[in-house]
Amino acid sequence: MRVIDLFSVKPLDEETLRASGAETNNLIITVEDHAAWGGIGDAVASAVSPVGIRVHQLAVREVPRSGKPEELLAAYGIDRTAIVNAVKSLISE
How far is the CA of 28 from the CAs of 21, 36, 39, 72, 93, in angstroms? Predict the structure, then answer.
């Protein structure tokens, strides 16, 4: 397991992503605090899917609303609890 701080979609470090995916059982989990479509998760999937690496995206999947940051992260399933649960669930598959 590792954390990669992918701060931008372009340029995308495909070499690091593919190497990391290969070292993590061909699985990458992306987490972003905005819509899933057209974001980092999609960019990562485009880069690594051709070599057989699965990408599980945690992102906002509904119309966002206002609130306290910790409440919103939990509501959209992108808080630390959601991340830990996703990791545990996907590793046990």
Answer: 6, 15, 15, 23, 14
